[in-house]
Amino acid sequence: MSLSATIALSAISNEPFSDPVAHCNIFGSIICIFGVSIFFAWIAFGEFNGILLSALYFLICVWIEVRSDYHSSALFLLTFFIAAAMGHACEKIKNAVDKTYAIRSEKLAEEINVLSDSVEKGAKSVASLEEKLNRYSALKEVAESLSSDLSIEDINALILEKVSYTLGKSGRMLLFMVDLKRQELMLSASKQVSKTKAKKGDVFDHWVFRNRKPLIIEDITKDFRFSANDMEEAKKNFRSLIETPLVSENKVIGILRMDSPKESVYSHDDLRILDIIATLGAVAVQNSLLYSRTQELAIRDGLTGLAVRRYFMERFQDELIREAGKKGELSLLILDIDHFKEYNDQFGHTAGDLVLKHMSRSIIVLLKEDGMLGRYGGEEIAILLFGAGKEKAAKQAEVVRRQIEREPFMLRRHKAHITVSIGVSSYPEDSASVEELIKIADERLYKAKSRGRNRVCSE
Predict the structure, then answer these.
(1) Catalytic residue status for 398
(2) Are 167 and 216 in contact (CB under 8 A)?
(3) Could you state, in order of their start, the residue ranges of all structural domains in the chain?
(4) What is the DSSP letter of 220?
(5) How far is the C-alpha of 251 from the C-alpha of 211, rounded, in Å?
(6) I need a labelling partner for 450 at 20 to 30 A (CA). Which of 140, 258, 371, 422 fits?
(7) Degrees (nearest 5) of the Cα angle 410, 416, 418?
(8) CB of 162 within 8 A of CB of 138?
């Protein structure tokens, strides 16, 4: 029979165990079982449930004590108190462990949150660096593109294109160039502009021009650097802007601007990128101007502004072929200043240069787009008249002669009157050869001089 069955039968029948050793073993087992139960109850179920189980254990001990002949109150009570004390102590230890675990878990969660924030900030920083890297890579392309293009118009269009691509922001783009003689802004190129009244810039452009530094406005309704009237007019067209000057050789040569109808569209980093593009653009514009100037010097006489002889002869040949192809007419005038040597002898060689410049300006204004002028050599000037036969060319030559004769010229505080002699040859009446036309016009020039100067000879 099992131990539990024996205990139960003995308690019910009120009959004591006949075997004392077995009696001791049974009650020892009961004490151990209840002691262990109380111990684990305190640990597993907490203080309240431990007290309940301990009370139940105490009642069972009393019941067994009453019903059984085996008196073991002291042993039961000792076991009870030992188990309860150990259970209580373990429960306290468990609570302390739980509290420590909770504190460590809280700290760990806090560290995890800090690390998460760091990772998030790191991701944002990486994204920002990638964006900057892409932008600066794009700036390299901008520099290469601007350095390879020498046309002012193409450079202006390219600057706006690269601004849009590099910044990746929507908005209106304006590029003003500075008229260095008048010191005023002129709209040179624009993008995403339906119409603009400020062809010469507005108050913001003039501020950048005067102060020679970049400008950023996140919201014009909250910017107090400009008057209320200026802001009221501006907010009809935009709310935020960035712009920067194009500076070359310590001079502002242009203004690059981008604005948007929305507020806070542009950042200071956008302004830095715009400023870099403006710097690259200023170098490209200056190089283009120098290139144009170099080309101009290659085909223009530095003193008179007329075409040099080599370029004039190339154009003469091209125009003759063109007129021959369409069966048109072309005339050549060779003009020489009368008594030119006397100006140099009386006033010096610089006086002769002044005479040439004065006469060249007079002829340029008079002919406008009707012909092409070139410095043929010394004081001689050659004029091509497009679409003009001999009769028309002779009349035009007479107009030039009279204009130069009656226009006074101040030379070293002396009023002087210049006269010229002109020889005329025409295609196809005189010849179809450039060399022959030049020879004939030159011969008629000397014929005019031999007849008394200050006249036109076309025969």
Answers:
(1) no
(2) no
(3) 1-148, 150-298, 309-457
(4) G
(5) 12
(6) 371
(7) 115
(8) yes
Give me the catalytic one of 379, 380, 407, 435. 379
Number of Cβ atoms within 10 Å of the Cβ of 302? 9
Which residues are CB-neighbours of 300 under 8 A, at least 6 positions away? Answer: 306, 307, 308
Tell me the pLDDT tens digit for each residue of 273-305.
899 888 888 888 888 888 777 777 778 887 888
CATH class of 309-457: alpha beta
Nearby residues of 217 by Cβ (< 8 Å), 6 or more positions away? 204, 223, 240, 241, 242
Smallest CA-to-CA distance from 75 within 39, 41, 29 is with 29
In tens, the pLDDT along 411-436 reads 767 777 788 999 999 999 999 899 99
Q: Is 220 exposed, middle or buried (0-12, 13-18, 19+ CB in 10 A)?
A: buried
Q: What is this structure's pTM?
A: 0.53
Amino acid at 211: N
- Rounded to a whole number of angstroms, the CA Rg of the chain reads 54
CB atoms within 10 A of CB 420: 26
Token pair of 242 as six digits:
């960035």
Contact assessment for residue 324 and residue 432, using Cβ atoms and an 8 Å cutoff: yes
First-to-last C-alpha distance (Å) of the chain = 160
Among the CATH numbers 3.30.450.40, 3.40.50.80, 3.40.50.300, 3.40.50.10490, which is that of 150-298? 3.30.450.40
